[in-house]
Amino acid sequence: MNALAARRRHPAAIAILLMIGLFLTGAAYAAVAPKPADATTKALPAQSVEEGKSLFRANCASCHGLNAEGRATGNGDKIAGPPLAGVGAAAVDFQVGTGRMPMTAPGIQAARADDVVFTQEQIDALAAYVASLAPGPAVPSEEAVDPTKGNPAFGGELFRVNCAMCHNFAGSGGALTRGKYAPSLRDVSGKHIYEAMQTGPQSMPVFSDTNITPENKRDIIAFLDTLDSQENPGGMTLGSLGPVTEGLFAWVFGLGIFIAIAIWLGAKAA
Question: What's the whole-model pTM score?
């Protein structure tokens, strides 16, 4: 008994107990930590990486640098294209897949375009090359963005708390500062919505899996999908932009009718 008590009083006992506690804490966290099962984490084919590298140098290096290290314009601290190491395949798939990149001309914000320059195979190759530079968010799987597996009601709550202040309560978009804007989310694919939350393009913040879990991201996608598919029972939506368009409608058409009536009454009285 005295020998056991002596061991407990040994100077190294506290350090050993701390090491054991840290080891057990790390093992417990590794067991319960969320796994990125929603993203494609398979190894990148070397052929795709090389093909993406060739496409990148031919179409993107003029702004982003020959090795995606970024490039300045030469006008003070202005940047022609930011470095891409660490942005991940998801950022490339979003920016190129929505027609925002390559930009046709310098501007405050890259706008969504219907005419996508590259095929999906070429976009995958570009994404593979950028993903090979440094770890980053991967392209989500089809299951992760399937709106039928989400909860649109809860997704609506999440959207109104986290997204509506910029994108409007109906996802119609809205104005920001200094000429920037939050784009409309209507008729945007679930994959691109998920990637935008992962990567935070333009002025949008990044919503990591700690902020919004993969399941909750899918709930938001399900909510936006219902907005695209449901009919409006209340007549004209006026763009679903709220009191701005409603007030403009009232001023232009409502007051216009009253003015016309006043002119008609005046002419009749004369």
Answer: 0.71
